[in-house]
């Protein structure tokens, strides 16, 4: 009986030792959302924790690759290193999206050590939903209705009248200039050019002015959601370009977010920008109709982005102005 207990105890110690060795390296994959709409983005994080600081080779993936068919990688972060309670942790993020609805099963990620030993993560799942109304059995719809050209004479006449009215000021200036040619040195100066003290707005002031106009117009209530989000994102692209000196005008929304990833001043507004760009991309590319709350939230977040990243302008006090004026007069 004692011998049996001894054998059982030995086996128990052996299995505990094996378990401890295997627990020295653990790999875990996680995703910030398991349910998204078409065109929305999800972030996958791959963590590997080990008891020693060793080199691990992450999967050879790059931007534009597909984790599975239909699930595209938009961006990949650098490997982030950290320590916690004597453990060494390495992490990498993958930003993904899909433009087809369905249930996607993401297979385990495989990491390799220099000694060729391999470590496998858990698998993940992602559900991509569409809000398009499904067709009934046997029902077919055209992508667009048939176009039937017709002549709208009222519209044509109004267009011609608009052109004439638009050209009238130019014709008047040319006529006035020819008529007064050679009469001394008198020149025709339009009223709007008389005041040369034009006030130039700062990038912040210009962005807030444009956003206030967009907020007041509320063109999304007229069914112009695409134009509404185009205007908001254009204002933000120009502002971010001038504020952080990064190329934004020719980049996709995911590329802009990736560019801001390592700019500390942009940390407080990154989530707000992600919300605006995510809804904008769905409206433009997936033809999704956002809710009223989403439309209101987008303009509120746009104001937040600009106001939270304001750079204080240098204000010249009265004494400095007076000193500058005196110096000019003496010269």
Per-chain topology:
Blueprint: H1 2-22, E1 25-31, E2 35-37, E3 41-50, E4 56-57, E5 66-68, E6 71-76, E7 80-84, E8 87-97, E9 102-106, E10 110-113, E11 118-120, E12 124-129, H2 153-179, H3 203-217, H4 225-244, H5 253-259, H6 270-285, H7 292-308, H8 318-330
Parallel strand pairs: 2-12
Antiparallel strand pairs: 1-3, 3-8, 4-10, 5-6, 6-8, 7-8, 9-12, 10-11
Key descriptive features of the protein:
Immunoglobulin-like; three-stranded mixed sheet; 8 helices; single chain; 331 residues; alpha+beta; elongated
Task: Explain what you see.
- It is elongated, with a radius of gyration of 32 Å.
- By secondary structure, it is α+β, with helices and mostly antiparallel strands.
- The termini are far apart.
- The chain has eight helices and twelve strands.
- The protein folds into three domains: 25-129, Immunoglobulins (Immunoglobulin-like); 153-190, no CATH class; 203-308, no CATH class.
- The strands form three sheets. Strands 1, 3, 5, 6, 7 and 8 form a six-stranded antiparallel β-sheet that branches. Strands 2-12-9 form a three-stranded mixed β-sheet, with no helix packed on it. The protein has a three-stranded antiparallel β-sheet with strand order 4-10-11, with no helix packed on it.
- The relative contact order is 0.09.
- Strand 5 (66-68) and strand 6 (71-76) form a beta hairpin.
- Helix 3 (203-217) runs antiparallel to helix 4, helix 4 (225-244) runs antiparallel to helix 6 and helix 4 packs parallel to helix 7 (292-308).
